[in-house]
Amino acid sequence: MVVVTGQNKVSGNPDDAMSSSDAEDDFQEPATPTATQAGQALPLLPQQFPEVVPLNVGGMYFTTRLSTLRRYEDTMLAAMFSGRHYIPTDAEGRYFIDRDGTYFGDILNFLRSGDLPPRERVRAVYKEAQYYSIGPLLDNLEDIQPLKGEKVRQAFLGLMPYYKDHLERIIEIAKLRAMQRKARFAKLKVCVFKEEMPITPYECPHFNSLRFERSESETKLFEHHCEVDVSFGPWEAVADVYDLLHCIVTDLSDRGITVDHQCIGVCDKHLINHYYCKRPIYEFKITWW
């Protein structure tokens, strides 16, 4: 039996005595809760924002009203400054948004008064509006150039089978040839044709009737693949071969690829009777450095 006196003297069998370390373990005070435990125990209070909000967006400073940031409910900015989320501040007490602030002024101008950016900044501001999920701004930008024209262009390209795949093939072939030859540039042949049925010049006046009168078996006689690296077509739209060539060059340029092209002739493959392919062949020259 263990007896603990007021002077902490212990009597009894030494084997039955509790060690001082055991006693300390039994009577030690609870440890101070960690930050994680405290966060689990006590929910953070809603963050309070001033009426005039100083901002630091990627190192660029802005000042606006809280109501401006909350102008549209379903946006990221409205959610960030709703009080439900914690936003860090910089050394000067400005609320910090870790985003390039180059076009944030255009975002604020729209939230303030509905102003839209000049044409040369439309694409960049559109990208920022997507990030901040500002639907009304996105809708307005899509109705002006150059985004409105891009929607029309994409509608045309939607008629083109495997358009994006063919662009990738052009890039891969050009890269492989340049690396194999240790060359600064690479050339490849590209066929761009609008009509599915091949014709010869003197058939043009009768082409529309001829194409619909041909049976399925006759149509197969005209099926072939031109001896080129990549082939685009056919399609049914007012836009012609030169319009598609413009799209191809534009999309390659947007990816940082320098490309020149020229028509080097037509496919002269003989198909049947007096029918020849006559699809235009273009040489693409892609310069890598």
TrEMBL record:
Stretches with biased composition (Polar residues): 1-11
InterPro entries in the record, alphabetically?
A: BTB/POZ_dom, BTB_KCTD7, KCTD7/14_C, SKP1/BTB/POZ_sf, T1-type_BTB
Q: Which PANTHER family match?
A: BTB_POZ DOMAIN-CONTAINING PROTEIN KCTD7, POTASSIUM CHANNEL TETRAMERIZATION DOMAIN-CONTAINING
**CDD domains assigned to the protein according to its UniProt record, in alphabetical order:** BTB_POZ_KCTD7
**Subcellular location(s) per record:** Cell membrane; Cytoplasm, Cytosol
For the BTB domain, which residue ranges apply?
Answer: 51-149
Q: Give Gene Ontology CC terms.
A: cytosol; plasma membrane
GO BP: membrane hyperpolarization; protein homooligomerization
Sequence segments annotated as region (Disordered): 1-35
Q: What keywords sit in the KW lines?
A: Cell membrane, Cytoplasm, Membrane
Give the gene name: Kctd7
> Major location, coarse class?
membrane
Matching Pfam families, A to Z? BTB_2, KCTD_C
The protein, known as? BTB/POZ domain-containing protein KCTD7
